[in-house]
């Protein structure tokens, strides 16, 4: 079928809206009309020449929409269902069977390669040439996407689909890091470095968990103001002094938990130094350079752990986040601003500049 998609044709090229041909869904796949799709920093990876997604490619991996067709072997999802899309996983390896699909044995190939391990859902351009179309199992910067049925979470039709897409990655990552990966208990102290969508989601989740004090660190004072409104009890403006000492001024015995969303080695090292002797620091994303720690940073019992997609299983965790939002306990909608898909290049620039926390593109507008 003919669809419209934002195509990235080169590492330094702008996105171009193009008419493409999308293959029909396979036996275990569904066709989804995209209502809203979040822009995530991970969607910039194909620009970095790191081997993650080679242009021409359609990215976008925080989609939500309406099911328009289902494959011959699909029975759990029906035409007309409303769904939130998340990452791809095999469902068969040990980690998938243990409800940790973000550590699927083939996660990188399925989500960061472009075509996927099974060829995905082929896209071709006006010249009949292929365009990579399986970014995180969806490539949803488009009017339509074909996804594996297991990557779609059915949600109530009364919910605002244009808001829900980011639950499939960025918001899931931040909240899951606190509630699933670190399992922060009530009254535990916590520092979150970086208050973008992931960090702010972590702060909201920490409030749900009953943690305290909750310390937010960022360069952007407006985001720190929002962090306080969403659950942070203390805020620190980064770069205004020694970060470890600033955290210690709030939690003299050290913080029990930390979550770094910046990837900055100096920030990570400072957060490790602020932990209690048995404290745990989670990291989302890849450190932007060599990470150097003091010789005694870890031997005293501290733990440094990498976290992918919040350690969450989308089929159960996304409904949990929706229920918390409905109860007024997880106001993730305060992070969202909506834009037409045609505004994608401006949105990307503003998001990278820190002007927008969580932009959501509306392909139907």
TrEMBL record:
Task: Name the coiled-coil region(s).
Answer: none
The record ties this protein, via Pfam families, to: ADH_N (PF08240), ADH_zinc_N (PF00107)
Keywords annotated in UniProt: Metal-binding, Oxidoreductase, Zinc
Q: Does the keyword Oxidoreductase apply?
A: yes
Q: Where is the Alcohol dehydrogenase-like C-terminal domain?
A: 197-318
Q: Residue limits of the Alcohol dehydrogenase-like N-terminal domain?
A: 26-120
- CDD domains given in the database record: benzyl_alcohol_DH
Q: Which cofactor does it need?
A: Zn(2+)
Q: Does the keyword Oxidoreductase apply?
A: yes
Question: Its family?
Answer: Belongs to the zinc-containing alcohol dehydrogenase family.
Q: What is this protein called?
A: NAD(P)-dependent alcohol dehydrogenase
């Amino acid at each position: 079928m003919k669809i419209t998609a934002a195509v990235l044709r080169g590492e330094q090229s702008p996105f171009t809206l193009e008419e493409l041909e999308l293959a029909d869904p396979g036996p275990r796949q569904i066709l989804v009309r995209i209502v809203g799709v979040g822009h995530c920093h991970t969607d910039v990876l194909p620009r970095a020449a790191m081997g993650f997604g080679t242009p021409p490619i359609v990215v976008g991996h925080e989609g939500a929409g309406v099911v328009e067709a289902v494959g011959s072997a699909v029975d759990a999802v029906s035409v007309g269902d409303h769904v939130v899309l998340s990452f791809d996983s095999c469902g068969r390896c040990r980690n998938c069977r243990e409800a940790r699909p973000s550590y699927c044995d083939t996660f990188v190939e399925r989500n960061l390669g472009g075509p996927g391990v099974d060829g995905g859902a082929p896209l071709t351009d006006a010249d009949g040439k292929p365009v990579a179309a399986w970014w995180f199992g969806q490539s949803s910067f488009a009017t339509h996407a074909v996804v594996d049925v297991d990557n779609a979470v059915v949600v109530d039709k009364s919910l605002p689909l244009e808001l829900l897409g980011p639950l499939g990655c960025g918001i899931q990552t931040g909240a899951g890091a606190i509630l699933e990966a670190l399992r922060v208990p009530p009254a535990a102290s916590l520092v979150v470095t970086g208050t973008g969508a992931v960090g702010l989601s972590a702060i909201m989740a920490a409030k749900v968990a009953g943690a305290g004090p909750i310390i937010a660190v960022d360069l952007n004072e407006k985001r720190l103001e929002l962090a306080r409104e969403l659950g942070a009890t203390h805020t620190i403006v980064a770069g205004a002094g020694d970060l470890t000492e600033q955290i210690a001024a709030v939690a003299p015995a050290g913080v029990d938990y930390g979550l770094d969303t910046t990837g900055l080695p100096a920030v990570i090292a400072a957060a490790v130094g602020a932990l209690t002797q048995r404290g745990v620091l989670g990291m989302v994303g890849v450190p932007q350079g060599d990470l150097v720690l003091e010789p005694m940073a870890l031997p005293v019992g501290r733990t440094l752990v990498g976290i992918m997609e919040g350690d969450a299983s989308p089929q159960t965790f996304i409904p949990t986040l929706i229920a918390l939002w409905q109860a007024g306990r997880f106001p993730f909608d305060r992070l969202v601003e909506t834009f037409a898909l045609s505004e994608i290049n401006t949105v990307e620039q503003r998001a990278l500049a820190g002007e927008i926390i969580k932009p959501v593109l509306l392909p139907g507008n």
